[in-house]
């Protein structure tokens, strides 16, 4: 495949305009059009369609762009690693993680790891499950930690580390605090929702679907677990949260827990890497083995 044409096509797709892409690339508009037509001829697929004054991708075009972006991200990643090797620098560890491992597990693991390997630079990014996986697939991180129900991705290799419990929370002193209620009863309460892409949100929706209970009303929606917990502590909302994040708040009676009849929720934490990255750096291998051994005793 013509990589030059693919690069131009990716720029057109990102800007949704042949004219704007031509200006950004400092080439003529006809030259951009020719490269796209050549790419369509080479693939035998229609990749773009006219939409108003701009363009939109066909289904095939969207498929090609998604993979082309990952290809060029991998190219940048290789260039950065080659520069590090040339300069004799130790390779950084770039880690992406969902909120729970990033806040309650990785700080402990990284502190111990840095004591053994003080010269290794570590960069940690946290986000929701979708964001974390995207960073891994686009070579923005070397490994990822996610809390997610049984799942598979053709480009990701995963290692199960441990399982964690999830609890339903209400404000301390709420009518359901310390009580056992049905899922339907609890779902009548205003809920604190996480953003789309959050594994906690997915768990709640799946529970409602499995037990044929209407999805609760959204009382508030937050883009973070800590914000949701603070709202419950302040006296508003019901939420589903990982036990690891709220057990200390329960001990201090800052929130209350609700037992839901017949429902226990446990979800796995996975350590993820890209398939094909078989020859990982020595530093990364050190850290992966360290985490696998540490998680056994957590």
Q: How would you characterize this protein structure?
A:
Helices cover 47% and strands 23% of the residues. The model has no long low-confidence stretch (mean pLDDT 86). It has three domains: 3-67, Winged helix-like DNA-binding domain superfamily/Winged helix DNA-binding domain (Arc Repressor Mutant, subunit A, Orthogonal Bundle), CATH 1.10.10.10; 86-162 and 268-296, Periplasmic binding protein-like II (D-Maltodextrin-Binding Protein, domain 2, 3-Layer(aba) Sandwich), CATH 3.40.190; 163-266, D-Maltodextrin-Binding Protein, domain 2 (3-Layer(aba) Sandwich), CATH 3.40.190. It has helices spanning 3-15, 18-25, 29-43, 59-86, 99-104, 106-116, 129-137, 183-186, 199-210, 225-233, 243-251, 282-296, and strands at 48-51, 54-57, 93-97, 122-126, 143-147, 156-171, 180-181, 191-194, 218-222, 239-242, 255-260, 265-274. α1 crosses α2. The protein has 298 residues and is of the alpha/beta class. β1 (48-51) and β2 (54-57) form a beta hairpin. The chain is globular. Strands 3, 4, 5, 6, 7, 10, 11 and 12 form an eight-stranded mixed sheet that branches. The protein has a two-stranded antiparallel ribbon with strand order 1-2. A two-stranded parallel sheet has the order 8-9. GO terms for molecular function: DNA-binding transcription factor activity; transcription cis-regulatory region binding.
């Amino acid at each position: 495949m013509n990589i030059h044409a693919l690069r131009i096509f990716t720029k057109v797709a990102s800007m949704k305009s042949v004219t704007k892409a031509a200006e950004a690339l400092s080439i003529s508009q006809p030259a951009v059009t020719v490269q796209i037509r050549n790419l369509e001829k080479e693939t035998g697929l229609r990749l773009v369609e006219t939409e108003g004054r701009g363009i939109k991708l066909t289904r095939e075009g969207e498929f090609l762009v998604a993979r082309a972006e990952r290809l060029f991200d991998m190219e940048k990643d290789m260039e950065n690693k080659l520069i590090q090797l040339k300069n004799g620098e130790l390779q950084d560890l770039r880690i992406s993680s969902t909120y729970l491992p990033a806040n309650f597990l990785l700080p402990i693991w990284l502190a111990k790891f840095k004591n053994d390997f003080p010269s290794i630079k570590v960069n940690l990014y946290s986000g929701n499950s979708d964001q974390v996986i995207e960073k891994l697939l686009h070579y923005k991180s070397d490994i990822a930690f996610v809390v997610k129900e049984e799942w598979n991705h053709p480009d990701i290799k995963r290692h199960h580390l441990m399982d964690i419990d999830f609890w339903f929370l209400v404000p301390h002193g709420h009518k359901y605090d310390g009580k056992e209620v049905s899922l339907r009863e609890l779902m009548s309460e205003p809920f604190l929702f996480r953003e789309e892409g959050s594994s906690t949100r997915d768990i709640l929706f799946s529970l409602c679907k499995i037990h044929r209970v209407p999805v609760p009303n959204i009382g508030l929606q937050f883009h973070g677990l800590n914000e949701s917990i603070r709202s419950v502590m302040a006296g508003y909302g019901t939420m589903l949260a990982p036990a690891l994040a709220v057990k200390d708040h329960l001990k201090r009676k800052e929130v209350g827990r609700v037992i839901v009849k017949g429902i226990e929720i446990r979800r796995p934490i996975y350590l993820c890497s890209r398939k094909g990255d078989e020859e990982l750096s020595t530093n990364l291998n050190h850290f992966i083995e360290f985490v696998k051994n540490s998680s056994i005793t957590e």
